[in-house]
């Protein structure tokens, strides 16, 4: 009974997303693209935090490194564009592996604290190294291939890549690996006691999450044509974390909902008031009190409960 | 199959296990009994790698396993359950067992194969044998306490162990649940020839199913022997049964 409904929903959603740039003005197409890539970023974080239970507090670093990786390759190396778009995510995955190897020795909050520290180190380097990264100015006017240089082109590129990445992650969480990381999240001691090498699974999960965050960063270059160090500052990491909390960490599509809500709020509420974060704070407080599993999590959890009552 | 020789483990100045000796032959059911604080759980932690011994030898199938990490010991053929319920609470009963089976089959690094239906036959067979078949789709956190303990035994079984170590499998159970659990332990031993080491407070139940019994007091082994020998031993009676002989 659920299947056809889900298929129909997916069909309607894709049709809408494909039609958007044809009907929306230029600025709104740009906002839609930002929503998409932020949704990808939040979902990649959720892989680490919601599915593996790792307190990934510095996720924006991988997003930023993905963006800088692509931007620097495009502006400084003279290598073809496809290489640049692969270089960003791969750099993010490599950094994720390196930081993971260090942080994974600690657990819970200590993992998160160490990650913020190491992430801030990366941020500081990017922020100060004027001759290479452009320092706090960032890099602007990044040359893009013609096909994705126009607003519509960049939107469609973002849409296709985001959809493919989400599909890949959806598949990953439904694989044996996906089940095992959820087991590790629930109970690492039990997981080890059934023979699971907990740290290696956590590490792979971090690398996958870092890679997809890097993809989101590369898409940012496509949409924005520029990069700046603030996108990897730790406060942005927390904003992405809030997206996951808001939408629901224990659901696959929750972070998507959270990301859309926060990006749209930031864009449209900030037109009317400088205090839009006050609005965000209020909403978040209400969600945490009344829907502790997040907006989407509340629906998902309610559904099986009903079945039980009926049986 | 399992041999422990004068194992010692201390925390600070306190010797939790102080000269434990234990021998378990293949196919036996061996309960470890002893008063609270005798070091039973610590001893089990040493066997499964959750703690490493300060000294002494722990041989499994003739090889030293003391100090190896838990997941390695599990792969050598020792599975365990814990005193406090230790399951994957947000996953269903089916998924709890499925993870253990997939782990044994070393399939946990497959990231693009759909997990649905994997190892289904074996998972269902295990659930049937422990009596949780009907509850397979329930989120395991919603199970009754007794069912959770049984689920944990099912998870331990999925590793296809040669030696099953159960830390107080009946802790906190109602009398009828306890009986069901003990029946399950006996059934597992009889049907699949599994070697089972467990600790237990209810001595009456222990005498009923044990091949041999190991008695521990203050970290040390007082004796190992048949139920009859244990019953007759005066040191055991004074230490554990509370009789001044």
Would you summarize the structure shown here?
The complex is a heterodimer of chains A (311) and B (245). Chain A is an all-alpha fold and 311 residues long.
How would you describe this structure to a colleague?
The complex is a heterodimer of chains A (311) and B (245). Chain A has 311 residues and is an all-alpha fold. Chain A is built from 14 helices and no strands. In chain B, 36% of the residues lie in helices and 24% in strands. In chain B, helix 3 packs across helix 4, helix 3 (93-104) runs parallel beside helix 5 and helix 4 packs across helix 5 (145-158). In chain B, the strands form 2 sheets. A 6-stranded mixed sheet of chain B has the order 6-7-8-3-9-10, with helices on both faces. A 4-stranded antiparallel sheet of chain B has the order 2-1-4-5, with helices on one face. Chain B is globular and about 55 Å long. Chain A binds chain B through residues 171-172, 174-180, 182-183, 185-187, 189-198, 201, 204, 208, 250, 304, and chain B through 48, 50, 69-71, 74-75, 79-80, 82, 86-91, 95-96, 98-100, 102-104, 107-116, 118, 139, 155-156, 158-159.
What distinguishing features does this structure have?
heterodimer, A: 311 residues, mainly alpha, B: 245 residues, alpha/beta, Rossmann fold, 2 domains, six-stranded mixed beta sheet, four-stranded antiparallel beta sheet, globular
Topology of this protein?
The complex is a heterodimer of chains A (311) and B (245).
Chain A: H1 2-23, H2 26-51, H3 60-77, H4 81-103, H5 108-128, H6 130-133, H7 151-173, H8 176-186, H9 188-193, H10 198-224, H11 234-247, H12 254-272, H13 276-290, H14 295-310
Helix pairs in contact in A: 1-7, 2-7, 2-10, 2-11, 2-12, 3-4, 3-10, 4-10, 7-10, 8-10, 11-12, 12-13
Chain B: E1 2-11, E2 14-24, E3 29-33, H1 40-47, E4 55-60, E5 63-64, H2 70-76, E6 78-81, H3 93-104, H4 120-130, H5 145-158, E7 163-167, H6 175-192, E8 195-199, H7 203-209, E9 213-217, E10 220-225, H8 227-232, H9 234-239
Helix pairs in contact in B: 3-4, 3-5, 4-5
